[in-house]
Amino acid sequence: MTTQPLLQPVRLGALELPNRVIMAPMTRARAHNAELVPTDLHATYYAQRAGAGLIVTEGTWVSPDAIGYI
Fold first, then answer.
1. Distance between CA atoms of 48 and 3, rounded to whole angstroms?
2. At residue 27, does pLDDT exceed 90?
3. How far apart are CA 58 and CA 52, in angstroms?
4. What is the mean pLDDT of residues 36-46?
């Protein structure tokens, strides 16, 4: 049985990916603490998805004044 192309390594520019699964960014907006910074919940979320060849993380704002939504 052969390995499916989706699960084979691939080179993407300078990156060597272990597989061709790419997780698109999704805004989770879970930084509800006073500092609006990532928490252990964020680390767990991405750790659970670490099998993807590449994870594009959600965007973050540069200051409280730069939040584009409530």
1. 23
2. no
3. 15
4. 88
Closest Cα to residue 64, out of 42, 36, 39, 32? 36
CA dist., res. 56 & res. 64, Å (int): 22
Q: How many other C-beta atoms lie within 10 A of the C-beta of residue 42?
A: 15
Give the separation between CA 54 and CA 24, rounded to whole angstroms.
Answer: 9
Looking at the predicted structure, is the pLDDT value of residue 69 above 80? no
SS3 for 29? coil
Residue 53: how many other CB atoms lie within 10 Å:
19
Whether the full predicted model's pTM is greater than 0.85, yes or no, is no
